[in-house]
């Protein structure tokens, strides 16, 4: 299967083409004002290298809101042109994929406007949609110190832990996250693409 994986939710922007589980094309750069043109240029090159695409994976956040919108806009154009299905991959699935297959627990991501979003995993699979949670007056420090079992739960602060998203592209990790998201949520067409982790306005007090 020919897959194109794209992300701009952190300071590291990339376009990768995977054919039969092997990376056949990869371009990455630090995010800049040229991110949208970078995405358009290199998705076209990835298509050319593979001669087409069967599936598209898009990292949709939580993360950089602007980057997520650019990524989704790029994916929508590609999906319209090729009619390929698109899997929207939440950051939760990428974080959980790093724990290895078969593990169970929960990922809580502190996202835009200090809104936490959580996802639950069982035997390596996400068993429900990613949802926001109300934690009242809890602070990040309080959550870290005892609100969650740190043996089975992962707390990820988009601001504090952003360097984890800036690491070089790892095909096995992204493919695992792609599979987790596809199994949990399925794939969508161009009309189903959206920015799922919009911040609330006004910010929560």
Question: What's the SSE blueprint?
Answer:
Layout lengths: L1 E6 L4 E8 L2 E9 L4 H16 L4 E7 L3 H18 L3 E5 H7 L7 E6 L5 E7 L2 E2 L4 E2 L7 H8 L5 E5 L13 H15 L20
Parallel strand pairs: 1-4, 4-5, 6-10
Antiparallel strand pairs: 1-2, 2-3, 6-7, 7-8, 7-9
Q: What is the alpha-carbon Rg in Å?
A: 17 Å
Spatial separation of the terminal alpha carbons: 47 Å
Number of helices: 5
- Strand order within the widest sheet? 3-2-1-4-5
User: How much helicity do the residues have?
Assistant: 25-40%
Strand content: 25-35%
Largest sheet: 5 strands, mixed
Q: Based on CA inertia axes, which overall geometry fits?
A: globular
Assembly category? single chain
Instruction: Report the order of strands and helices.
Output: EEEHEHEHEEEEHEH
Q: Tally of extended strands?
A: 10
Mean pLDDT: 79
Taking pLDDT < 50 over at least 5 consecutive residues as the criterion, the unreliable ranges are 199-205
- Class inferred from helices and paired strands: alpha/beta
Descriptive account of the structure:
With 205 residues, this protein is an alpha/beta fold. The chain has five helices and ten strands; from the N terminus they run E-E-E-H-E-H-E-H-E-E-E-E-H-E-H. Helix content is 31%, strand content 28%. The longest helix has 18 residues, at 65-82. The radius of gyration is 17 Å and the shape is globular. Residues 199-205 have low confidence and may be disordered.
Provide key terms for this protein:
five-stranded mixed sheet; alpha/beta; disordered C terminus; 205 residues; 5 helices; 10 strands
How would you sum up this structure in a few lines?
The protein is of the alpha/beta class and 205 residues long. The protein has five helices and ten strands, in the order βββαβαβαββββαβα.
């Amino acid at each position: 299967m020919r897959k194109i994986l794209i992300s701009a939710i952190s300071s590291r922007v990339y376009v990768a083409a995977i054919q039969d589980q092997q990376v056949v094309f990869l371009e990455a750069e630090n995010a800049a004002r040229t991110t949208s043109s970078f995405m358009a240029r290199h998705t076209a090159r990835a298509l050319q290298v593979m001669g087409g695409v069967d599936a598209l994976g898009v990292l949709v956040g939580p993360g950089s809101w602007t980057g997520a919108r650019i990524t989704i806009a790029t994916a929508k154009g590609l999906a319209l042109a090729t009619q390929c299905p698109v899997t929207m991959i939440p950051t939760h699935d990428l974080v959980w994929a790093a724990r290895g297959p078969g593990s169970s627990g929960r990922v809580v991501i502190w996202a835009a406007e200090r809104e936490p979003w959580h996802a639950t995993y069982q035997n390596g699979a996400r068993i429900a949609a990613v949802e926001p949670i109300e934690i009242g007056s809890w602070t990040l420090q309080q959550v870290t110190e005892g609100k969650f079992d740190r043996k089975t739960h992962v707390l990820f602060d988009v601001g504090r832990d952003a360097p984890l998203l800036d690491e070089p592209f790892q095909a096995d990790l992204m493919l695992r996250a792609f599979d987790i998201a596809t199994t949990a949520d399925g794939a969508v067409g161009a009309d189903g693409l959206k920015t799922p982790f919009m911040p609330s306005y006004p910010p929560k007090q």
